[in-house]
Specification:
The chain has 2 domains: about 5-30 and about 310-415, Aspartate Aminotransferase, domain 1 (Alpha-Beta Complex); about 50-310, Type I PLP-dependent aspartate aminotransferase-like (Major domain) (Aspartate Aminotransferase, domain 2), CATH 3.40.640. The strands form 3 sheets. It has a 7-stranded mixed beta sheet with strand order 2-8-7-6-5-3-4, with helices on both faces. Strands 9-10-13-12 form a 4-stranded antiparallel beta sheet, covered by helices on one side. It starts with 6 loop residues before the first helix and ends in a 15-residue tail after the last helix. The longest helix is centred in the last third of the chain and has 22 residues, at about 315-335. It has 14 helices and 13 strands. Helix 4 runs parallel beside helix 11 (about 295-310), helix 5 runs parallel beside helix 6 (about 130-140) and helix 12 runs parallel beside helix 14. A hairpin with a 3-residue loop joins strand 12 and strand 13. The protein has helices at about 5-15, 20-25, 45-60, 75-90, 100-110, 130-140, 145-150, 165-170, 195-200, 220-225, 295-310, 315-335, 360-370, 395-410, and strands spanning about 35, 95, 120-125, 150-155, 175-180, 205-210, 230, 245-250, 340, 355-360, 375, 375-380, 385. Bound molecules: pyridoxal-5'-phosphate and (2S)-2-amino-4-(2-amino-3-hydroxyphenyl)-4-oxobutanoic acid (3DJ).
Length: about 425
């Protein structure tokens, strides 16, 4: 066995890892091998500290917490938006922390989907996250159109990945809007957002991306690529906690813009408390907020985003790629002939932060991993997703995971588990 496949290699990599000190800030990472950070990132001490600070501010200041204390709540969404700017490659006024992935997509569809004449269609893909499809269908029907006439879901050649050329070919002159994921949630394929954006614009089509599976794990250049809008969550690689507030980006050239769904937090902050019945929308992305920010669901994110302020996103991407490459190498060498197939693209530029393994016994293997305190998740069709999170996953975690898989297969341990799905996974 070559040195790179040995556990000593993993130990050496961990010793040389510039992000190693951050793992100590995530105590649960030492209690199990947590590889579900692409679903819900782990609790950190920093997140707890900022949550406690907000609770203390509420206790101490009451209603004055909106304007007093270490983190006044009134413009917290804007300030957190600015912390997010380096992660998505935008200008500060283009980003706001608000809503959730799905709610933000509703807001952006309400704002940017304007079917006119022949251009009535929304182009998306057959592998998109279901919530995005439900939101898109809602807006099509709200416009009095049928899904059959106005939705294009580009087919996948293999049920797991997309061919970007096929997506571009589907950008016909009846398409008004393209909505795509940056990284496919099952296979982990990363789409070429720059090329897709240029192709959409060449054809006079607006384009927006769901960044749920790429934010916090890789750099983006939304402004430079010319993306019209984007939306994402903060509870995966950004570790904001369950249900933490999401975020969105709207390109400068679309600002100022009246939001499709307005509320009093869409207001220009200088006049919001005039309580007038005519909305004066904020001139920046803050206009796409609706009601009172969910401060308790923003609070942990403040502490969590401090870590991202300290670390260049390129350093995170570098470790992420090294971890996933190492994982795939180990799977190829140690689990050959065990029925696994890596469905995530092997090229660095074409994959996101997780590795997806197809196996006929994926559910039972996932359960056997969990029983060994290794936390993956399962997604149809027969996919085990493994997401190393650079702030807290070690190379030794990766080596140990593959070793657990080897033992589970060697001793047929997975046969002890039922193939029934769990309700939430
Ligand atoms: C790609 C993608 N889009 C949308 C969602 C829905 O996010 P939310 O439930 O926060 O609206 C998720 C995750 O749940 C997701 O992974
Ligand atoms: N948002 C989630 C939830 O509320 C419960 C369980 C899982 C989730 C997820 O985020 C799953 C995730 N979007 C996925 O990639 O499958």
């Amino acid at each position: 066995m070559s040195f790179t496949l040995s556990r000593q290699f993993a130990e050496t990599e961990d010793r040389n890892d510039p992000l190693a000190p951050y793992r100590r800030l995530f105590p649960p990472a030492a209690e199990r091998i947590y590889l579900a950070g692409n679903s819900l990132g782990l609790w950190s001490e920093r997140a707890e500290q900022s949550l406690m600070a907000v609770l203390e501010s509420w206790r101490h200041h009451g209603v004055d917490g909106w304007s007093h204390g270490p983190y006044p709540w009134f413009d917290l969404s804007e300030r957190l938006g600015r912390l997010m700017v380096p992660l998505v490659g935008a200008n500060p006024h283009e980003v706001i922390v608000t809503g959730s992935t799905t709610v933000n997509l509703h807001q952006l569809l309400a704002t940017f989907y304007r079917p006119r004449g022949r251009r009535i269609k929304i182009l998306t893909d057959s592998l998109a996250f279901p919530s995005d499809i439900y939101a898109i269908k809602s807006h099509i029907t709200l416009h009095g159109l049928t899904v059959e006439e106005a939705l294009i879901e580009v087919a996948s050649p293999d049920g797991l990945t997309l061919d970007e050329n096929a997506v571009i070919q589907a950008m016909t002159d009846d398409v008004a809007l393209v909505i795509l994921p940056s990284v496919l949630f099952v296979s982990g394929q990363r789409l070429d957002m720059a090329t897709l954006t240029a192709a959409a614009h060449d054809r006079g089509i607006l384009i927006g991306f769901d960044l749920a599976h790429s934010v916090g794990i890789m750099p983006h250049q939304l402004s430079a690529w010319g993306v019209d809008f984007a939306f994402w969550c903060t509870y995966k690689y950004l570790n904001g906690g369950p249900g933490s507030v999401g975020a969105l980006y709207v390109a400068d050239r679309h600002l100022p813009k009246t939001p499709g769904l307005a509320g009093w937090f869409s207001s220009d902050k200088a006049v919001q408390f005039d309580m007038a019945h005519t909305l004066v929308p904020s001139s920046d992305a803050g206009a796409f907020q609706i009601g009172t920010p969910h401060i308790l669901s923003l609070a942990p994110l403040m502490g969590s985003l401090e870590m991202f302020r300290e670390i260049p996103i390129e350093t995170i991407r570098d470790k992420s790629l090294r971890l996933t490459r190492y994982l795939m190498d180990l799977v190829n060498h140690r689990l050959a002939d065990r029925g696994f197939r890596i469905v995530t693209p092997l090229q660095d530029a074409r994959r996101g932060g997780h590795v997806a393994l197809a196996h006929p016994d994926a559910i039972r293997i996932s359960k056997a991993l969990k029983a060994r305190q290794v936390i993956p998740d399962y997604r149809p069709p027969r996919i085990i997703r493994l997401a190393p999170s650079p702030l807290y996953t070690t190379y030794q975690d990766v080596w140990d995971t593959v070793n657990h898989l080897w033992e589970i297969m060697e001793y047929r341990e997975y046969e002890r588990y039922s193939p029934e799905r769990e309700v939430v996974s």
